């Protein structure tokens, strides 16, 4: 057999190679990659474990931060190509062991405490489901711009694509906006108590909110003074963040329809995440983009601010 060459450089055939943090085997069974990631995650946990014990050391929220910010991203890296293997019982054991170690560090529980109980207490789904969820989000982002008909995990497109066709995907390619025609004021609770809310005087004031329960998602807006109310429902797959954004969008559209001009318009939202998303120069959400476009249209003839 002739040796393979690339740019006159001979290539050596190997059974295993690591590329971009993912261990590739010649049979693509991904078992080696998952076990290696789990061992490194456990090593990271025990390196930090020396700094705390059951009655002393960092608080539980710091251990949870370690898991969410360091361990979990390392485990889910590249999940789009290997996440489908998490359903195999031979590999779920290694993943469950990692999460159980972390949950024990957070709760300080006894060794005999059932894993399911700790997952319910900490509102943590099984790690295999977290990895699959990460793979689904990545797939949705890629499917917006690429043809994903040839995909390793055949079950993933079958589950995700009908949902995307039905309700669409909120993710989009990043758009950069270096300026905005409206202002955003993020006040602390103390500032509201000391009278900083006076900035709402002599302006059209709208209060917006979004909520979600087990069965439905809704958004609402209320205008101070005129007692105008706007209520709308969203698909049950929507998040509270999307509901909060939609409330501002609908209020801005209503003002545009009414022909509001030469006024100061203030939108009051209790979601800091929404205000920061609208204040960011980078937008990767269609819902945020629609809200920004509505605010920009309103700001052409009004002074618009979000508080």
UniProtKB/TrEMBL annotation:
- Which segments constitute the RNase H type-1 domain? 202-281
Q: Which GO terms describe its molecular function?
A: nucleic acid binding; RNA-DNA hybrid ribonuclease activity
Q: Which domain of life is it from?
A: Eukaryota
| TM region(s), chain numbering | none
Q: What is this protein called?
A: RNase H type-1 domain-containing protein
What species is this protein from?
Nasonia vitripennis (Parasitic wasp)
**Taxonomically, what lineage is the organism?**
Eukaryota, Metazoa, Ecdysozoa, Arthropoda, Hexapoda
């Amino acid at each position: 057999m002739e040796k393979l060459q690339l740019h006159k450089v001979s290539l050596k055939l190997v059974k295993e190679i690591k590329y971009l943090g993912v261990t590739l085997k010649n049979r693509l069974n991904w078992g080696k990659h998952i076990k290696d990631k789990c061992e490194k995650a456990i090593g990271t946990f025990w390196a930090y474990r020396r700094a705390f014990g059951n009655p002393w050391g960092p608080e539980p929220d710091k251990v949870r931060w370690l898991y969410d910010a360091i361990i979990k991203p390392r485990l889910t890296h590249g999940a789009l190509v290997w996440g489908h293997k998490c359903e195999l019982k031979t590999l779920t054991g290694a993943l469950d062991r990692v999460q159980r170690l972390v949950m024990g560090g957070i709760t300080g529980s006894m060794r005999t405490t059932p894993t399911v109980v700790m997952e319910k207490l900490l509102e943590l789904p099984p790690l295999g489901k977290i990895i699959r969820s990460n793979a689904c989000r990545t797939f949705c982002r890629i499917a917006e711009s690429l043809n994903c008909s040839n995909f390793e995990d055949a079950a993933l497109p079958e589950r995700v694509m009908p949902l995307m066709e039905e309700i669409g995907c909120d993710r989009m390619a990043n758009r950069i906006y270096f300026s905005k025609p409206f202002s955003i004021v993020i006040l602390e609770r103390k500032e509201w108590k000391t009278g900083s809310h006076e900035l709402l005087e002599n302006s059209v004031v709208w209060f917006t909110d979004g909520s979600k329960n087990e069965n439905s998602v809704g958004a609402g807006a209320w205008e101070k003074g005129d007692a105008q109310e706007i209520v709308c429902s969203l698909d049950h797959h929507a998040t509270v963040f999307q509901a909060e954004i939609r409330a501002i969008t609908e209020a801005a559209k209503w003002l545009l329809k009414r022909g509001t001009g030469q006024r100061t318009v203030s939108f009051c939202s209790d979601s800091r995440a929404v205000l920061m998303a609208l204040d960011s120069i980078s937008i990767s959400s269609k819902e945020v983009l629609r809200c920004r476009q509505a605010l920009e249209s309103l700001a052409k003839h009004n002074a618009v601010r979000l508080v």
